[in-house]
Amino acid sequence: MEEEILKVLKESQNGYVSGEEFSKRLGVTRASIWKHMESLRNIGYDIEAQPHLGYRLVGVPDKLLAHEIMWNLETKIIAKKIYSYETIDSTNDRAYKLAEEGAEEGTVVVAERQSKGKGRMGRRWSSPKGGVYLSLILRPKLMPTEISKLTLVAAVSVAQTIRSATGLQPLIKWPNDILIGRNKLCGILTELKAEQDLTAFVILGIGINVNTRISLLPKNATSISKELGRDYSKIDLTKLLLKNIESHYILFKENKFKAVIDEWRNLSAILGRRVKITDKLRTIEGQAIDIDEGGALVVRLDNGFNERILAGDVILVR
Amino acid sequence: MEEEILKVLKESQNGYVSGEEFSKRLGVTRASIWKHMESLRNIGYDIEAQPHLGYRLVGVPDKLLAHEIMWNLETKIIAKKIYSYETIDSTNDRAYKLAEEGAEEGTVVVAERQSKGKGRMGRRWSSPKGGVYLSLILRPKLMPTEISKLTLVAAVSVAQTIRSATGLQPLIKWPNDILIGRNKLCGILTELKAEQDLTAFVILGIGINVNTRISLLPKNATSISKELGRDYSKIDLTKLLLKNIESHYILFKENKFKAVIDEWRNLSAILGRRVKITDKLRTIEGQAIDIDEGGALVVRLDNGFNERILAGDVILVR
Question: Which domains does chain A have, with CATH numbers?
Fold first, then answer.
């Protein structure tokens, strides 16, 4: 009912809708309408009530509410269904469970906070209030060896979203961080369930420091509000992000992944730079020269040979 | 209590244990011992009772009971914990869930039957009574791109187990079938949960047609009992299989995977043969010439180039 009330308020021409009109259109009493207005106010909606005019929506809370994200979203695959939480242990874990229970491609889990936000390799991802924590279920026809392609889809989508929304100039640090300067603005955690030659589903997890207080974040982290000098609407950012992910995911699905790679090259923090890459077995050093069509980083070693790297921790060498 | 009774019976010198001795050693009444004997008989244990001698274990049912598999198993990692079911939907699904709940490496799920046995690529695996349906949780330090190595570990272990137990000469059809002649004796389904550069866990699923009636199986399937002309103990086979998996898994963990590949080469149904391989994107044809250290099949195409294949359906071309 509250969503219907919001819809009527948002679609009103002059802004005002009388209690009488509400009760006629929604088929409930004016007293019931008044109660629903109270609960909307409790969530954070600013609803004005004028004696002769009725109710008017003055302000919407910047909360990742499902119906706010879906409002005029106009996506085809992504976010047909959104699970929204005030606090959750991990949006990735929740999305993984939903996917196992059969949730369809495009299902989104968002939260205002995570109590056990996950980073790569079993690390933690600081998830205080102010950030956007979002996980997305995808069901691509994909070999598990191609998973890094979807990390690139997410990274390009996040970097472009922040650029077009805020004018900031974040870059992608392969494979899964978005930086401003040397400071982390966003992390991506891609997880999957697969057999040897078939992916059952992929969870794209994205954590963005939007209006997060820097004092609540680890060293070397930054936030959009810090860089911008003011808060930015989490809802607007999330909507734009979902649209961008959809358009890049469609490129991927239509075998136009090369277009994603081209964008990635323009957004890369490491191409042309000297890097040191550590994985569980070894550390290599060389110049990051390209990303190939499989999503692997191509590094030119000092012996002149190129090496394809599929994963690892990257350090930029001065 | 029943497991303790079985232990006493199995360890008895002359076979017989009196009711009095039981009640002394286990601290319960003789009436209670008698009741437990009845429930063991109901499971299928053949227990003789002689007036002046006591109880004697004459026969053990050929059921995949946890304590029968664990009896004198002497493994270090594998099967420290076994979940045994009369019927289950899918041992892989059950093991996957247990792994998500934190079950430790080596945990085994076995069943007499599966109601929704899974094959590769969403296919079904016929799982009537008489077969061994077994799934194993592993937690290797592994990139998801290396998953096929563990399929090879399983394939080599199964083929060797059947060879040494029964004298039959099954071969491995890359990547995941064990054949006698052209008929399928065993299938392997490897599943994993992973991030881009870290595997959380792997489920090795193995289905072997042991004493299965051929009429209950699909065309082009065979069973050990069919090939051998008599039944073979599922328990003995399972114990040997678990030991073989452990020894090959240890080779893998100690970076001696090359030894597994060498064994695989000797057991391969396809090396040197002309093959047609189909994956979701294409079909290639050529000669299967080797398996490389990453577990990929190397195929020499007709144009003289070699191609590394990580997955796909293989057809032997005459």
Answer: 2-59 (1.10.10.10), 66-267 (3.30.930.10), 274-316 (2.30.30.100)
